[in-house]
Specification:
There is one protein chain. The strands form four sheets. A ten-stranded mixed sheet has the order 19-17-16-8-7-6-5-2-1-27, with helices on one face. Strands 3, 4, 20, 21, 22, 23, 24, 25 and 26 form a nine-stranded mixed sheet that branches. It is 32% helix and 23% strand. β12 (315-325) and β13 form a beta hairpin. The radius of gyration is 26 Å and the shape is globular. By secondary structure, the protein is of the alpha+beta class.
């Protein structure tokens, strides 16, 4: 009997060992192998300036793309690998359950299918850029195998890079909110529509910016409005400070005419915003209704759906998600569904199909590069008319003094007669739109009489001074354009109108404004806080006294700033989501408890509470949610401080003088090497960022010469 138990124990041990080995090795073996890009030599030189910003020079455009990938990998290879893992649907194997959610979405949206169908139709020069970028990442991985986080992730190819664009683009206009709400049986968020009531909107792990706090400011000033005949453009994107949609600054030059200074996201072979010699643009998030949800009628076993009176098979595909648990990667089966409308989610209320702008399309890869190389307003407009970028406002300026705002979106070509803001019937094929409206129907404001343009995630109908508004009646309600104003937009208009002629200092003062306009949700929220009955709670009485004394500025100089910082964010959040304001007593009580516990006072200095933290760097910040100086999202740390992680990010001030010569200045919250603690550029821009200062962008070789700190060929 003892021998039997011994044999059983040994056998069980062998099984466990075999199972453990299987869990160790199955995932990279199961993952699809990718062929490397075509072999090619690249002629590229990288020059690092005082702040580690890479200036990339190549004979050809692909040379530059190769250099972009290599330079970015030197500074943030960890994040680039996460983006690569997304495109291969292996994030779960790298980051566990949260990563597996992203893998599921990539399967659900059939991202690799889009690439299979559309990649070869891209122009040859774009495919060459993508292959070159992949080759640059592969080269860095080959040189630094100790940094590779996931077995079998490399080599990458151009199709992998394209897949990253297809996956992340729809999350900039809220697709993750819709998918999350459907997955949790919650009410759907409605972009472009009125305020909602109902349950909290659930979200999957964000792939793009966090949907509730998508933001940015942008300003353009024409020479006629300037004190010195200068055209000015301010890029003030509000993005996460770390991760897959954190900005990376760069300057690029190729002998094929590609000259650009700006910033890009991990996984992109070119900048997304900034300037070349003759023109520039920046972006702000817009919120049109670009997503439609259809409720399907299923048969009894759920295998078919009805369309135009006939039953069609519901496409079902079994996928395996690799989910990292400790040292193991566990296979987890899921089924993804698809109908003629698009991806389908089944929940307790039924089966819902989703159709969204840019579905099954890769034209954005072409459009962004054509924008980079446009030489004047006509060429830039021609690139915009390609209509590849699914959504985002473009604010433009150029050396000729033109300024413009384009409310860019791939508006679905919807037919009238249906409630496009609600759940649509899934059994009518005429509601399955096949394309988008034409470029001539996209809202655009060019050279307004006021001499300035601004956008702060507000309605495009208000983009300049009084009298320059676009007429909403000129645009179809089927476009789903939002009517919202933000505090930032109200403040910007007010400050521009009061300023008269604009110089560089005045424009910077507007950009760094920390005030709240006494209108809309801000006034309503303050009134609700002051209307609370203390009911014997002396701390509520004390807090209300601070609220009354507050000067409506979050500059850290007045009383009540820290208190109001924490009180305004919940109100801004719900207003942005078009939902009722939160419970005033609950929010005020939580804020009082936090400040009392961690600071022993309801009125600590704002900079004591609000911090820029990275490694050993720990600095005071100003601004708040929905102020032009944006400190939008933060992590509550163990000491009670609020460490900002989202808000003002890459900032760039661009100017063309009267002779058309360009110059720019920029700053980042941390530095060029945000995931390299040993780098001198880990936080070397932080103090400037806190002080509202910028550094020069050395756009030409001549300007760069005196600031060259490292020169090499990868």
């Amino acid at each position: 009997m003892l021998r039997l138990f011994t044999r059983l124990a040994i056998g069980l041990a062998v099984i466990l060992v075999v199972a453990a080995i299987g869990l160790f090795v199955w995932e990279p073996l199961f993952a699809e192998d990718a062929a490397p890009p075509p072999a090619r030599s690249y002629d590229v030189e990288i020059i690092r300036d005082d702040y580690g910003v890479p200036h990339i020079y190549g004979k050809t455009d692909p040379d530059v793309s190769y250099g972009i990938a290599y330079a970015h990998a030197e500074d943030d290879f960890s994040t680039l690998q996460e983006v690569a893992a997304m495109t291969r649907m292996r994030m779960g194997a790298m980051n566990g359950q949260d990563g597996a959610k992203i893998d599921f979405v990539a399967h659900l949206l059939d991202i690799r299918g889009t690439v299979d169908r559309k990649y070869k139709a891209l122009p040859a020069d774009i495919r060459a850029l993508l292959d070159a970028y992949a080759a640059g990442l592969n080269h860095y991985a080959d040189e630094h195998p100790e940094e590779v986080r996931l077995s079998g992730l490399f080599p990458l190819n151009g199709e992998d890079i394209a897949a990253g664009f297809a996956l992340r683009s729809p999350f900039f206009f809220g697709l993750d909110s819709v998918l999350g709400a459907l997955a949790e049986d919650n009410d759907l968020p409605i972009e472009g529509g009125p305020k909602l009531t109902g349950k909290e909107v659930a979200r999957i792990t964000p792939i793009g910016p966090e949907p509730d706090m998508n933001g940015s400011n942008a300003f353009a000033v024409a020479p006629a409005r300037s004190t010195d005949n200068v055209t000015r453009l301010v890029s003030n994107s509000h993005q996460p400070w770390r991760g897959g949609v954190a900005w990376y600054e760069l300057v690029v030059h190729s002998e094929e005419g590609w000259d650009f200074a700006g910033a890009t996201f991990p996984g992109s072979p070119y900048p997304f915003l900034g300037h070349n010699k003759t023109l520039g643009w920046t972006n702000t998030v817009n919120r049109p209704d670009l997503i439609d949800v259809f409720k399907l009628v299923l048969n009894e076993d759920g295998s078919q759906y009805r369309l135009d009176g006939q039953w069609r098979d519901l496409e079902a595909k079994r996928v395996w998600l690799g989910v990292k648990f400790g040292p193991f990667t566990v296979p987890f089966p899921q089924t993804v569904y698809r109908s003629a409308h698009g991806p389908v989610i089944k929940n307790g209320k039924g089966a819902f199909a989703i159709r969204y702008a840019g579905i099954d399309d890769l034209k954005m890869l072409d459009q962004y590069f054509r924008l980079n190389k446009a030489r004047d307003f006509a060429e830039w407009q021609a690139a915009m008319a390609m209509q590849g970028v699914p959504a985002t406002n473009f604010i433009y300026a150029d050396a000729q003094g033109n300024i413009a705002m384009v409310y860019n979106a791939l508006f679905p070509a919807r037919k009238p007669g249906a409630d496009w803001r609600g759940i649509l019937p899934g059994d009518r094929s005429e509601l399955i739109w096949k394309g988008h409206v034409g470029w001539d129907q996209v809202p655009m404001l060019v050279n307004p009489s006021s001499g300035y343009i601004m956008n702060a995630n507000n309605t495009p109908y208000v983009a300049s001074g009084p009298g320059d508004e676009l007429d909403p009646a000129g645009f179809s309600p089927l476009l789903g354009i939002e009517s919202d104003m933000t505090n930032r937009a109200r403040q910007a208009i007010k400050l521009f109108e009061a300023a008269g002629k604009i110089d560089a200092a005045t424009l910077a003062k507007i950009k760094y404004d920390v005030g709240y306009d006494k209108a809309d949700y801000a006034t309503e929220w303050v009134a609700a806080l002051l209307a609370l009955k203390p009911e014997g709670n002396t701390q509520i009485t004390e807090a209300q006294a601070l609220i009354r004394a507050w000067d409506w500025q979050l500059d850290g100089k007045g009383t009540g700033d820290a208190l109001m910082l924490m009180l305004m964010r919940p109100a801004m959040r719900e207003s942005y989501r078009r939902k009722p304001l939160p419970d005033a007593r609950e929010v005020l009580t939580e804020t009082i408890d936090h400040l009392t516990k961690h600071f022993g006072s309801l009125d600590p200095k704002l900079g004591t509470v609000l911090r820029l933290r990275q490694g050993k760097t720990d600095l005071p910040l100003d601004g708040g949610s929905d102020t032009l100086r944006a400190s939008t999202l933060w992590d509550v740390e163990d000491d009670g401080r609020l460490a900002v992680r989202h808000g003002d990010s890459f900032i760039q001030f661009i100017e063309w003088d009267a002779a058309g010569k360009v110059a720019s200045r920029s700053v980042q919250p941390f530095g060029s090497a945000t995931t390299r603690p040993d780098s001198p550029h880990y936080t070397d821009q932080a103090q400037m960022f806190v002080n509202h200062q910028t550094k020069p962008v050395h756009f030409t070789r001549e300007a760069l010469a005196a600031h060259t700190k490292r020169r090499y060929r990868p």
